[in-house]
Amino acid sequence: IKLIDTVYEHPANPILLFVGQNLSEDYLARLLAAVENRSIAAIVISKSGTTTEPAIAFRLIRSEIERTSRG
Known about the structure:
- It contains two helices and no strands.
């Protein structure tokens, strides 16, 4: 498991990121930069399904998946 600060490695190497614990603009920008030019898979875990942070993070990642899959 890697923190976002250490993910700027070769794009062929898989990485695991936990998203949704931080909504800072800087963090989200670094997150999107970290997944750029990578295949993305998302697993969403939310006990209630109504927590703001995971919901926003999911929408952000889903949007990035949709954008990159359109090619």
